[in-house]
Structure formats: structure tokens, C-alpha cells
Design goal:
Radius of gyration: 15 Å
Largest sheet: 2 strands, antiparallel
Strand content: 5-15%
Helix content: 40-55%
Shape: globular
Length: about 130
Amino acid sequence: MPASEELPSTLERSEKHAQALWSKAHDSAVKEYGEGERAHRTAFSALKHEYEKVGDHWERKAHNGPSDRKAAGGRDTKASTQEGVDANASKSHLLDVAKRLDISGRTRMTKDELVDEIKKANRRESAAARKKK
């Protein structure tokens, strides 16, 4: 099935370039690996190099590159994914994202705590957006 017909809901709420990037990477991965989870993971990996998840959608990052240790290390890395949060960004950037997501107590959090709280807020906002649909 073409990626344009199975676009994840968070990408439906994102800019056209993010949708096109994910779709092209997904279709290429399907040709290489077949339909399924691996094609989706490959497409999200490509997306995370240019975009980060903020709330219920994806936004372009200031600088391209891996978003976390998993993305930097590849498939065989034992590191966990940060679900689209740009964990390699500065603490200042993470504080800005946390502010936009109205995360309380953010100024007293460490960088790792900010990443975890942003992931939680992203999940909540995505779930709420899916319910509205």
C-alpha cells in the first residue's frame, strides 16, 4: 500500500514536506524490506533527522541530524528511542518546547526529565487529537 494511503495521524497534522519525506522513505523501505513494521521504522528514522514531534504533529528542527542515541547508533543500538523528541537539542530548546506544551515545573527539570515529560505530553496531545477525529 502506498504510504500516502497509510499516513500516520501525527503526519496528517504536519506540513506537506514532512508528509512527503515520510512517504518517500516508507515507499523506498517497502521496496527494500517489504510492507510492515520495518518500513514504518525506517520512514520515521528518516523523518526524525529533519523533524521533531511537538504535541500532536511534527515540526522542522533547526539543525538536521539524529534526534537521539538510537537514531545516531542505528538498528543494532541498545539505546531506546525518544519518540520523536529531539533529545540532542539544547536544554534551552527543550525548555521552549516544554513551555509550548504547558509542562509545569519545567524550569527545575534536568535535560533527561524534560525529554521524558515532552514525550508524555506528546502522547497525550496525539491521543486527544485522534479522539477528536
